[in-house]
Amino acid sequence: MRLFVALFPPPPALAELGAEVRRLRALPDAGRRLRWSDPATWHFTLAFLGEVDEAVLPDLTERLARAARRHPAHELRLAGGGRFGDRVLWAGAEGDVPVLRALARSAGAAARRAGAPVDESRAFHAHLTLARAAGRVALRPYAEALAAFRGSPWAAERLELVRSRLPGSGVPGERPRYETVRAWDLGG
Ligand code: ATP
Ligand code: MG
């Protein structure tokens, strides 16, 4: 199964960002050239595990539980944004991001030790994917429009192991479905 470890902001924080994104979506070309992600699925990926054998799950969940216990609940806010080239538009985070980064590192290590093919080649970059470009789209105006955004603070207090089911319908533009397999409170 395809798995990743994530942190989901609470609904009020998502609603604030949602209002901001509605403004972005009113920019020219926003609807035609960008695939916007569903606000209900917005998350910070802490570790992407890829295809994981079911037999790995017991060890993996035990290690992730320990990783969650080792890091405290912390305060974040959704703020600013940017782009990865002209492919991905994202919103950023401010606040206790070093705690989030340490948690991401632990989650990646836990997955690797459990034998999941975790991709640790890229340094952790706290971001929440808002849209993906279908073809070449100049994302800079969107990133600039996001720069001034600063949401209210909230408590990051739960680590989640999530299953991603890729669409099998063949309907163009259909998004993967996310399903939480297990969740743990930070700090135990
Ligand atoms: P799609 O790939 O159709 O755009 P998605 O990215 O939302 O959908 P997945 O590909 O299952 O769904 O990815 C789940 C999460 O893991 C997303 O946050 C995605 O950005 C992240 N992710 C996917 N592949 C990698 C990777 N190779 N390295 C790091 N993070 C990844
Ligand atoms: Mg993907």
Give an overview in words.
By secondary structure, the chain is an alpha+beta fold. The protein has helices at 11-24, 30-33, 57-70, 97-114, 140-146, and strands at residues 2-7, 34-36, 44-51, 74-84, 88-95, 128-133, 154-156, 158-165, 177-185. The chain has a single domain (2-167, 176-185), classed as Cyclic phosphodiesterase (Cyclic Phosphodiesterase, Chain: A, Alpha-Beta Complex). 30% of the residues lie in helices and 33% in strands. The strands form two sheets. A five-stranded antiparallel sheet has the order 2-6-5-4-7. Strand 4 and strand 5 (88-95) form a beta hairpin. The two termini are 27 Å apart. Bound molecules: adenosine-5'-triphosphate and magnesium ion. Adenosine-5'-triphosphate binds at residues 2, 4, 45, 48, 119, 129, 132, 164, 176. Adenosine-5'-triphosphate binds next to strand 1, strand 3 and strand 6.
What is this structure's SSE topology?
Elements (H helix, E strand, L loop, with lengths): L1 E6 L3 H14 L5 H4 E3 L7 E8 L5 H14 L3 E11 L3 E8 L1 H18 L13 E6 L6 H7 L7 E3 L1 E8 L11 E9 L3
Antiparallel strand pairs: 1-3, 1-8, 2-6, 4-5, 4-7, 5-6, 8-9
This protein binds adenosine-5'-triphosphate and magnesium ion.
The site of adenosine-5'-triphosphate has 9 residues, from strand 1, strand 3 and strand 6.
